[in-house]
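Section handout 9: paired folding examples.
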Amino acid sequence: MIQKTILRFIIPVWIVFALSACTSMAVPEANSLTSADATVGERSDGVRVVANLPPPPSSASGEQPLAPNDILKVDVFQVDELDRTVQISANGEISLPLIGKVQAAGKSASELEQSIAASYSRSYLQNPQVNVFVTESSAQKVTVDGEVKKPGLFNSTLQSSLTGMVAQAGGLTDIADSNRVYVFRNIGPERVVANYSLKDIRKGERNDPRLYGGDVVVIFPSGGRVAMRNLKEALGLATSGVTGIARGGALIP
């Protein structure tokens, strides 16, 4: 009888604690990524929200677009002092002698060659011949993060889709919100993001988008499921705590 009385007192306290804890936890998680739950057309920290992601500009030619962290060898024919091995920065640029920063991410290697040649021809060289070789590429990788069982980098192919990539990452966790799946992509110098619902895709109500190298997929948690998990954990601790108190107080033989 005494044990039940103690349990009735402690469990409501743990419920309040659990719900307040999950509320404080859910807010930073939901706000940890700018543009999450933002409206179409809104721009936040340089990221524009779109209804559907457009393909990278170079995808029409069949060439894989360049991406941040790719390492390139730039060769200017018969001008050895201009040759460089460079890495694409996080904001998608490379830096070259005389012409400075050049946007590289989102372009194909051939498009970048044309862009570099045009920059040199404006002030420094006549009809320069520029070759760009990709020596190390991250462009074949898609990042899957958030509420999946095996987050990480995954190889992309011409057949890569959002649902297929989530499956490669082990599927969703038990607290994932399948309606809050965000895909980020570089379109030239711009970064865009779109929200996709895996439920709608599986029901055939929305197309399963193709993914390209350099894309980043983030799956957010469901606030309700986080709250329920915290509540279950709190109730478990409360029950075990009461049992321990009762045993320690010699209320249970």
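Moving on to protein 2 of 2.
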Amino acid sequence: MDQFIRLAIRGISLSQIQSGIYVLLLEEESGRIKLPIIIESLQAQSIAYALGKRDPSRSFTHDLFLSIAKVFHIRFKAVVIYKLVNGIFFSYILLEGDFIETEEERKEIKKKEYKIDSKTSDAVALAVRFQAPIYTTKEIFDKAGIYFENGFPIDKENDVSEAEMKNSSLFFSKEKSQQDLENMTEKDLNALLNHAVVNECYELAARIKKELDRRE
């Protein structure tokens, strides 16, 4: 996995403005680049549960998969977030298990790696339970990563500070109109979405996400 960037979970936050919106914040090892991903309520609860905030009365489908994997000796190797389209992150999980085609092979069990597409939030929920690494590509970081300096987001290409961003057409003011969003490119919308999420401007994030979904 040398060609990928390893990620850690920085946290999960709940919007106090827009009901049902959660943000999963991932970061690379130095903590300087963060990757915010909007996820659904159930997956957010499942990830939080697996991270240690456990409610003994709750269990999730991800826990069932963990139990099945242990019984059948399935090894959960990694999660890879490999693509971003219209604000949606695409992932796959890498599994390793016994591969038997004939009775002769049953005497000498082989291990085979399987790549399975998964919703990113489900993949992360499983990775936490299996204590498996999470990776992404440099291309996704270049497109959607938020760079931080001394705790504040900066423009990764032009080293523009947060204060300078306020004078930019991309700054996430709550006054952004629907017309403003419709006139922006997909690349600019993704950049604006990430800044809105990191700064907990969830109402704007929801509007941007809706505009990106409309363009699919």
